[in-house]
Input
Amino acid sequence: MVGPAFGADSAAQQQLVFVYGSLKRGMVNHHQLAGSHFLGTAQLGGLHLFDLGPFPMAVATDDPAAVLQGEVYGIDAAQLAGLDRFEGVPRLYQRERHQLSDGRHVWVYVGRSQQVRHVPRITSWPPASDHPRPAPGPAARR
Output
């Protein structure tokens, strides 16, 4: 699916990326997608979401009920390389191809199971309804 801002020439260069955490609209790192094209919300199966504190991490699972809610953006190769740097590929995340429930293929940043052994699983980001966070202490409120 090509968004309205993409012409026939640029469609071949477009990369689709699925975001599920701090890169979503209204989240703290959304500015990393400046200049990209929002293509809508989507669902991606086969991943569980974990709360790493300031950001979530999706990890592959065999659970057939696992469905991740997120957003899809059209970006160019330079933006994709910038996201790789931002996401710490390959040290922190791996960038993998996955198929959305609507059939489109997207890039998604995925962690490894050993990275989330001791952190809570959540169903969405931010995790307000899953794991309320304590209010920040006086030093954190500057």
Observations:
- DSSP finds two helices and eight strands in the chain.
